[in-house]
Specification:
With 266 residues, the protein is an alpha/beta fold. The protein has a domain of 175 residues: 3-Layer(aba) Sandwich (Rossmann fold), CATH 3.40.50.300. It contains 10 helices and 10 strands. A hairpin with a 5-residue loop joins strand 1 and strand 2. Helix 3 packs across helix 4, helix 3 runs parallel beside helix 5 and helix 4 packs across helix 5. The radius of gyration is 18 Å and the shape is globular. The protein starts with 20 loop residues before the first strand and ends with a helix.
């Protein structure tokens, strides 16, 4: 495990100094209008192609941090840079195509009469039309294994299928960065595994907000812990989850009997 604010080795073993950054957060501090301070000088770099788990107890500031990545929140202290672009008003349209957010509840993203129309909504709003739009939608649905459901109403799908369609709506925008909020929540074991297979297959940078520590270990070689508005740990996920004292201190718990070292060996 590395100290907060340092750059660990990237997932493929590359030197972080030579790897391009997808996300760069420096000195980010933010207080809500009611005066509650949510972030206190967060520094975080996510290299292109990394899969990073963002861990922390409820109220740690995870959602506040994520909402800064595409400009939904702003006005605090510090800087956020996405794919080399500062997150400021003049870049927001491009940044929101670069950063795809997948919410915890897929019904927050699915509102059209059919799956196809939901997946087409974003690219169409960006000006895509005709054969190019059709190809974009078809590709996104194939990537999540939902092409055969294109003409179904989303509310006729299972929860796991709706979550995959929600991922497809974001992939249709061809983002560089995929941010997922609790992607494994409310999934049965088969749906959980299917989603994991999909996420592993994607050639994008992934930042995954989760309380599901085994899922973080399965999918993300690197993890950071955000607690009380600051990053308190940053390192290889297996090593971090093996540090029981750090987990206890920041109200993170592994399932009973789960051994991260054995899972890594397996």
């Amino acid at each position: 495990m590395t100290a907060p604010g340092t750059d660990p080795v990237t997932a493929d073993g590359a030197d972080p100094a030579t790897a391009a950054a997808s996300l760069e957060v420096r000195g980010l501090a933010y207080a809500y209008p009611d005066g509650r301070q949510a972030l206190f000088g967060v520094d975080l770099t996510v290299r292109r192609g990394e899969r990073v788990a963002l861990l922390g107890p409820n109220g740690a500031g995870k959602t506040t941090l994520v909402l800064h990545l595409n400009g939904i929140l702003g006005g605090g202290v510090g800087t956020v840079t996405v794919a080399g672009l500062p997150v400021v008003k003049e870049h927001l349209a491009r940044i929101r195509r670069t950063v795809g957010l997948v919410f915890q509840d897929p019904d927050d993203q699915l509102f059209m009469p059919t799956v196809r129309e939901d997946v087409a909504f974003g690219p169409a709003a960006s000006g895509l039309r005709g054969a190019e739009l059709t190809a974009r939608v078809t590709t996104a649905l194939h990537r999540v294994g939902m092409a055969e459901y294109a003409d179904r109403p989303p509310h006729h799908l299972s929860f796991g299928q709706r979550r995959r369609v929600a991922v497809a709506t974001v992939l249709a925008m061809e983002p560089e960065i995929l941010v997922l909020d609790e992607p494994s929540s409310n999934l049965d074991p088969a749906s959980r595994r299917e989603l994991a297979d999909i996420l592993r297959s994607l050639d994008v940078t992934v930042l995954m907000v989760t309380h599901d520590l085994p899922y973080a270990l399965e999918l993300c070689p690197r993890a950071v812990i955000l607690s009380e508005g600051v990053i308190v740990a940053d390192g290889r996920t297996g090593e971090l989850l093996a540090d029981g004292e750090t987990l206890r201190e920041h109200r993170l718990e592994l399932p009973f009997g789960f051994d991260p070292a054995a899972a890594v060996r397996g």
